[in-house]
Amino acid sequence: MVMLRYRYLFEQMVRRELRSKYKGTVLGVLWYLVNPLVLMAVYAVMFGVLLDAVQIDDYPLFLFLGLIVWTFFSQSLLASATSLVEQTSLVSKVRFPRETVPAAVVSVQLVPFLVLLAIVAPVAVVIRGTLDPALLLLAPIVACLYAFALGLGLMASVAHAYFRDVQPVLGAALLPWFFLTPIFFRVEDLPGLAGHDTAEALLRWGNPVAPFIEAVRAVLYSGEAPRGATLLYVGAATVLALGAGRAAFRRFEGELAVVL
Amino acid sequence: MTLAPGEIVLADAWRAFNVRGDRGRTLKELFTRRTADPLDSVQALAGVDLRVAPGETVGIVGRNGAGKTSTLRVLAGIVPLDRGSAECGGRVATLIELGAGFGREFTGRENILLNGALNGMGRRDIEERLPDIIAFSELGHFVDVPVKAYSSGMMVRLGFSIAAHLDADVLLIDEVLAVGDEAFQRKCLRRISERIAAGATVVLVSHAAGAIERTCQRTIVLDGGQVVFDGPTAEALLHYHSMLGTEAGEGATERRPAPHRKVFVEEVSLFDGEGRRRQVFAAGEPLHLVLGLGVRPGAQPCRVAFELRQASGQPVFGAGETIDLGGRPGRLTFEIPRLALLGGDYDLVVAVQEPGDPDPGIDRLVGLSVAETPDAEGVADLRGTWRLDTVVPT
Questions:
Q1: How far is A136 from chain B (nearest CA, A)?
Q2: For testing the chain A interface, which of B22, B27, B121 should be mutated: the one with the most A CBs within 10 Å?
Q3: Are residues B197 and B76 in the same domain?
Q4: What would the pLDDT profile of A113-139 be if each residue is shown by its tens digit?
Q5: How many structural domains compose chain B?
Q6: B282 in the same domain as B178
Q7: pLDDT per position as a tens digit, B294-322
Q8: Alpha helices in chain A (DSSP H)
Q9: Other beta carbons within 10 Å of B312
Q10: How near does any CA of chain B get to the CA of A30, in Å?
Q11: Are residues B61 and B141 in the same domain?
Q12: What's the CATH number where B63 sits?
């Protein structure tokens, strides 16, 4: 209800965030797109060609789908963590629904993600021949991913406002997290995991980002509906993250003007 | 409880702030300093009760740290209470800090849109008001220049123009009007008056008695987080000044007479034509300046002078008189039959110059305010009548 009344504020904040981020740079908003493209090229050459470590068809495509999901997720988390602190003057001097600050930041990250997805999806459909009714699942999966990142972002933003180590801790955690996430590999392909079912399950289900990547890949790369368990996991993770994020934000937003 | 638009209820409001641990806490501190040191805690509000009816204008005065800004922030809903309740009816607009919520990289126009949105307005509402806001701000083409190039006066213009056009039911203003040129301040006050006439409630926090006197019928004096006086503005300001006076605070800054002084000013009082002590006058009223003079043995004839200055320090009027007290304390009165000053805040400084005294310095400084005179601009009250005679062409 409140968010409805303030939707123009939300729109303004997203626009402001988008522009202020890259104001004065030559490529402007395009910078959002450069990062994942460069990463994709590097990993494709390193793992696919130089190391020759993977036997995955259309490896750059496989890689790219994982990368864009991961980039959106990690950038959303990092950016929302500092979002409230960066808007101190606003939060401590004006009354408005403070959720709009981290929500705007996460939404800004959604823009390059959607652009990249719009570019890669037709390519995937053509190369992989994945024109399948399962494609319709892409929209709800992306919506879930957004809500999931938003939930965690709400938590991160308010936590960082109280304790300024949150963002550095997140930054440090995201690197190992990246390598443990099935972005440039498939869990079932890992030779070291053979016979270690618990470790495999942990890698697959212990990491909430993995099922999102798996779901996107199932639809775009494999041309099939994601497994029921995966979809269930995605839905549950979304509801849980958003619920916990909103609850945490409600609980702690009151003192924001004081702690900032 | 639903309040009528413009109604304000603050009931038994308590709020403490942690002075030390507020900024930049880290996890390490959480583990090393588990219990809060009570010495770090400041009770900003200690049981404040305030009820404001729609259409009222309320001033809040008090020393630094008396809880003025905390009251405003609590009313605005920016800071929650520890205990008690704070509620405002209808749309609330705040002007708490200069340029709060302005993106420095963005133009004035863009910031108008953002600020309107921050106050819960939709796109159509804001775009409808945009021309009025820009016109009111008088920023001209600067409205399309990034705010980082603005002076503080320009920031006030922009901030106030936005807040004044939000059609708020409750307007919370903290000191910001003190910056900016006088003509614009007057325009702001006029605009506030219009809002009040339309049923809005205004709460104005200020050190400057003048701004409060000119806008508020009712004033609250805060001290130590508590309401120590709540009543008509004139009485409240008297109470506030006497409170400051007893502790030689602001408003009545003085110098203790140097021991070598044989004649010194003990007291400066302003009275109206009926002999009532006043701090605020209407333009054109009589004003009697009464100086209580003290003497020490060996006092000689000396010159007593006063000067009236604008708040900016610009002299407006000065006069002096050579007197001989004959070794006894006395009272020197200067009668102004008609105070020919327009609305504004003035300072009155008094000095005594004894023979062989090169620089008399300032013995006493008191504040003096003249009530708003919306129909004229400037300092001197030369208000007259217009007459138009048409000339018949030959």
A1: 33
A2: B27
A3: yes
A4: 999 999 999 999 999 888 889 899 999
A5: 2
A6: no
A7: 888 888 888 899 989 887 667 899 999 99
A8: 2-5, 7-22, 31-43, 59-86, 88-93, 100-128, 138-162, 166-180, 197-205, 209-217, 228-253, 256-259
A9: 10
A10: 20
A11: yes
A12: 3.40.50.300
